[in-house]
Amino acid sequence: MNRDTDIVVIGGGVIGCSIAYQLAKRGVRVTLLEKDRIAGQASGAAAGMLGAQSEMHEAGPMFDFARRSRDLFPDLAEELKELTGLDIGLTHRGMLKAAWTDAEAAALRADGRFHQEAGGRAEWLSPCETGWLEPGLSKELRGALHLPDEGHVLAPELSAALAAGAARLGARIMEHADVTGLLTESGRVIGVQTREGKIRSAGTVLASSLWSAQILAPLGVELPVYPVKGECFSLTVRQPLLARTIASDGCYIVPKPGGRIIVGATAQPGSFDRSPRLGSLLSLAAQAQRLVPALAEAEWERAWAGLRPQTPDGMPYIGEITACKGLFAALGHYRNGILLSQATGVLAASVLTGGAAAAEAALPGAGELLEAFRPDRKAAAAAVRQ
Amino acid sequence: MNRDTDIVVIGGGVIGCSIAYQLAKRGVRVTLLEKDRIAGQASGAAAGMLGAQSEMHEAGPMFDFARRSRDLFPDLAEELKELTGLDIGLTHRGMLKAAWTDAEAAALRADGRFHQEAGGRAEWLSPCETGWLEPGLSKELRGALHLPDEGHVLAPELSAALAAGAARLGARIMEHADVTGLLTESGRVIGVQTREGKIRSAGTVLASSLWSAQILAPLGVELPVYPVKGECFSLTVRQPLLARTIASDGCYIVPKPGGRIIVGATAQPGSFDRSPRLGSLLSLAAQAQRLVPALAEAEWERAWAGLRPQTPDGMPYIGEITACKGLFAALGHYRNGILLSQATGVLAASVLTGGAAAAEAALPGAGELLEAFRPDRKAAAAAVRQ
Amino acid sequence: MNRDTDIVVIGGGVIGCSIAYQLAKRGVRVTLLEKDRIAGQASGAAAGMLGAQSEMHEAGPMFDFARRSRDLFPDLAEELKELTGLDIGLTHRGMLKAAWTDAEAAALRADGRFHQEAGGRAEWLSPCETGWLEPGLSKELRGALHLPDEGHVLAPELSAALAAGAARLGARIMEHADVTGLLTESGRVIGVQTREGKIRSAGTVLASSLWSAQILAPLGVELPVYPVKGECFSLTVRQPLLARTIASDGCYIVPKPGGRIIVGATAQPGSFDRSPRLGSLLSLAAQAQRLVPALAEAEWERAWAGLRPQTPDGMPYIGEITACKGLFAALGHYRNGILLSQATGVLAASVLTGGAAAAEAALPGAGELLEAFRPDRKAAAAAVRQ
Amino acid sequence: MNRDTDIVVIGGGVIGCSIAYQLAKRGVRVTLLEKDRIAGQASGAAAGMLGAQSEMHEAGPMFDFARRSRDLFPDLAEELKELTGLDIGLTHRGMLKAAWTDAEAAALRADGRFHQEAGGRAEWLSPCETGWLEPGLSKELRGALHLPDEGHVLAPELSAALAAGAARLGARIMEHADVTGLLTESGRVIGVQTREGKIRSAGTVLASSLWSAQILAPLGVELPVYPVKGECFSLTVRQPLLARTIASDGCYIVPKPGGRIIVGATAQPGSFDRSPRLGSLLSLAAQAQRLVPALAEAEWERAWAGLRPQTPDGMPYIGEITACKGLFAALGHYRNGILLSQATGVLAASVLTGGAAAAEAALPGAGELLEAFRPDRKAAAAAVRQ
């Protein structure tokens, strides 16, 4: 790619920031456009879990993609710390998926066997072993699946560090920059229209999931993405209460540095509203307190909500949009945006700068992934039609 | 009182601010000393209820005092609005005390009869009448006691307006001003020692409940006051949900201007900790949502806690401390500080400027009240001894 | 207007809220759509001045409109307080426009004569008179123009109260509701498309100034509006320092209830960025401290910025858009949105419910105003062409 | 020291937290009492500079102490990260002390020679070299002294990490815990009185500088400490502007991770007020913008103030108080609390657990330092008498 050409990235969530960072690392002149503030939506609201195992329950491209993305984090964390001084709070202390009933226990054991067969570490713990590992857990649990390699990061810091790293490498980061349309020429996207003027570019990346429909509609393209609201809250404790992330039935409890604990998350599809509601917080808090009774004494900090962008078949769209040459989609990561951000960044940046070969070199298996995540894949369209 | 003499008020909660304001109105040169910020403790954390009936269940000085104090609010609100531009949010839309069981209903009916006999308005409502008045209430309630004259104010604004009003009338309001001791001469208090120097005064008012022990200890005086932590949270709704305050079994739901709703309050005696805890908020939220099911959809705002200063017999200390001439106590108002602040201000300021006669003129029945609230009364001391 | 029809108002700034409120008062079923939060942009960032004289320097429709709008505030304040409990902080303590040089003094005297001739109160004050009225002002001023009828409100509270009042009267207020397009049928606007679905309506009001271009572009309509960034900061003082608003050369100092002081505002055209910048705050602070030296001791609170929507000829667009039947514009109020909100609300709501006759009845002279503010007026278009 | 004995540390600023952490590391059961929140005062307000050279201008115990303390930070940062997950943001990118005049340049050159002779790195830079190293600096500077080894940390994170680390090692951290007096027996301090009860301990550390007078007064001990208010503000920039800390004439500009910049600090002796004032911020901002003109475009974040505890001779008090056996003072670190916290923690903890020999082993030269910082040294007392 010629040093004079630009790539415009639309959307300053963790996906857009990761792509901008990887492009800047590859010597590309990038402009990142964010309509509000960096990581102002879901990326800043996330608990930051890297659930490469806990969120994946069957073999397939998502499973591979997730594991590869997780493996990129340790180097990235060092790189960003060196470059920007920011610490993304990466830890790998593992997770316990706890069972309240025999049925849940059986399902988790099956899940554990799947991960073992896939070459990952996963171990079923009896109630006694569970309590030995995490004494703060309820004594009434029927055991837990231990995934010792699961980790998490500080989600807002991750996006901030990627954006700051990109800026340090020469990228232009523009906040309060609304994209109002795409510039096209002979059916090819050649830049973007913002409220402050036109920006021409050799390539354009669309990484703004829930606002993508507005941008694509005038081109007659539809990439279905739906919002799923997730409500969370945070607590603080003085004395350490948990070492690992605890999860059970939609509720997870993530111990963060310095005694902070994030509890998440509800899943309410269909609404663009971003307000945390009393009823949701109440049931989430009841679940968390049942799992870790001593949380009753934790200090309340605050509550918030974010919208995760879901696609019909549960997989992100990554790749050029067939009907719009020059427009590369990287969106729809649902609740795995933090985890998948790194592999998405590497994949998008390598394809954009060196094509399929570069992608394969950067991320072995890239070809299959790109095939699976094609924006015009049938599965997504089929799901829409139903 | 000579225009050259000063009165120092220790403590910038609502009681200290009210006394400073009433003194300034009477032409006294006042200095108010607050160790942190105005209304930074319980006075800023209160829901602002004026529970002249709902908090009082038997005849006696507290009952009289509460009703008189409530009656002072309408004039005060106008006065402060005129003087400072601040609106204290006074409303008198009434309260419903709701019953879940027949036993609760019977107790509330008895309470209602007491208030009727005492000349106040109180009316028992059937479940149907309750629902007609407040359609947002649970249909499972057994009825409610309607106290149509109960009201509330915005607690932080009340203290702020009293302090601003006092300042406007010439009082000196000093924040970040720690009183480290009292100056005495021949057994008489003649001023205060602060970290920034001495302030001499003709009179000194002690209105800092939970820090009073530190100030009185060197003089060998003990005025027992205990902290009782109260946790609250606030919500917002777009469409009006309630017109009146709802109360039941320790939980109250107070509709504030503009769709804000305050839910309070736990009562945890003995701790000076001011952190809102998950467990307390959880049980409070469950109570509130059971009372008003549509609160489940309300937006969460924030949670906080305050410490109310309780005395052994439940009554405040108001009057000169026998063993320390020149030192006037006005503290220990427990969870009725907002309500009682106005009568306390008038009582203290009139006694200090004109003695018993002036107090009687300003507040008929003042003599009996001052007798009941004497800091050296036997009841308080007796309760301590046990 | 039929009770079954709806009007959709796009934009929850002060203009949209005022129109929704006036429509709800007239019995119309209104839905207000705000992409973020009510008054989240310029309307919440304003200092709230009602500069019916200070902002107007020549006869014409803007001058008349401003004075009529100002005159609507006292009744409105009472109405909203009664309906919602919210106090909009209306005061009419006047303003001093201060002169540092003889040239400024001459210009202000001329301005004063204009206002006197127009029947308004305006009085030139010598340096001595200026200092007598406002002792906090610099002794180096060459005098000031006194406009005793100028006032101000609390800007965020005004929008909040209008929205809450509208909701109380049955309007539906929807936040986080992005309008992505207009629904049209045979060239007539018949509703809006949001990310959550279509809303059909008998009439549609466009009150979202800086986002209007995106909505109008697909219809081929252009209503030029430009952002002008304004930076402000606030201070607090314990002892009253000023009674009146002080203005000089782009800097104004507005004393708010309870010792709060707002200092504004820069004017930086052309940028959509909403960040307060150090350099701008520095020069604004230097101006303010020169005007009122004792501000040096005021406590810093915070800084912020907002974008005012400016039109080419400085007048708002109010009226149906010729090319889009059914679409009524009410936008582009630049830095007078707070002041003009009430007359705009009355004008728009009366036209929409009763046509020109109703408008004339509600606001005498409405016909001329509507002619002057026509969205397709030549002046605006001409200014664009240049 | 017996495992059953306790040490109570009074004061949860950076000094108290560091001592508690070092004691916990040595196996001591510690209780840390903080009247408000951890690092709620000066320790949380600091810019976090480790000015081992920039703050020291002559040989002596302070100079040695500062360099030793600085050298402890790299290991500490790793230790705390491992133990608590918190990153204290340690960087060592150096500092430029800039000269506007020839006189300033001469003074800085002399300062540089002193540091070179003392074995430290220090280099005078011409205007051209200065601009080459930091292109953002004003072109009008006469050069700068480059201290390449100076660094800084994130001050609030440092205290938080020390407290969390201590807690993890078994210390009890109590916030909202006011110490109202010391318990004594035969002239020996045997614990503390808090508002919630007595705590007996084998040793007591007094690390609460500006509240120490209240605690010591009843024992007839005077350790003079004076508050010096420091006001600061923070900015953010998207593109990196500075790599090193810039200092000139009381103003320093500290580039923090992720584009945050802290500008400090005024020095206003004698007041306990903790409000940032407009006048101070204005002159600080003018200085900063003159040094780095592009700061004019930086985004304003917020302003705050803290009180630094100064002693008459500029040195902290570290050691047992002669008149109160069992009471160890560690306070009065003025504006070098962050820098000196580590050596103070090691010194205090080693003396308390193993006496002079242990201190010498832990920190060579400890004996001389303890002699210099003796609370009853003549210099401090002499300075008071004048």
What portion of residues of chain A is helical?
25-40%
- Residues in β-strands, percent of chain A: 25-35%
Number of strands of chain A: 20
Q: Largest beta sheet of chain A, briefly? A: 9 strands, mixed
| Gross morphology of chain A | globular
Enumerate how many helices of chain A there are, as a single number.
Answer: 11
**Number of domains in the coordinates of chain A?**
2
What report would you give on this structure?
The structure is a homotetramer of 386-residue chains. Chain A is an alpha+beta fold. The first copy, chain A, has helices spanning 14-25, 42-45, 61-84, 102-117, 127-133, 155-168, 212-216, 278-291, 337-362, 366-372, 378-385, and strands at 6-10, 29-33, 49-50, 95-98, 123-125, 144-147, 151-152, 172-174, 179-185, 188-194, 197-200, 203-206, 226-236, 245-248, 251-256, 260-264, 268-269, 299-310, 317-320, 327-331. Chain A has two domains: 6-84 and 155-223 and 313-385, 3-Layer(bba) Sandwich (FAD/NAD(P)-binding domain); 95-151 and 226-310, D-Amino Acid Oxidase, Chain A, domain 2, CATH 3.30.9. In chain A, the strands form four sheets. In chain A, strands 4, 5, 6, 13, 14, 15, 16, 17 and 18 form a nine-stranded mixed beta sheet that branches.
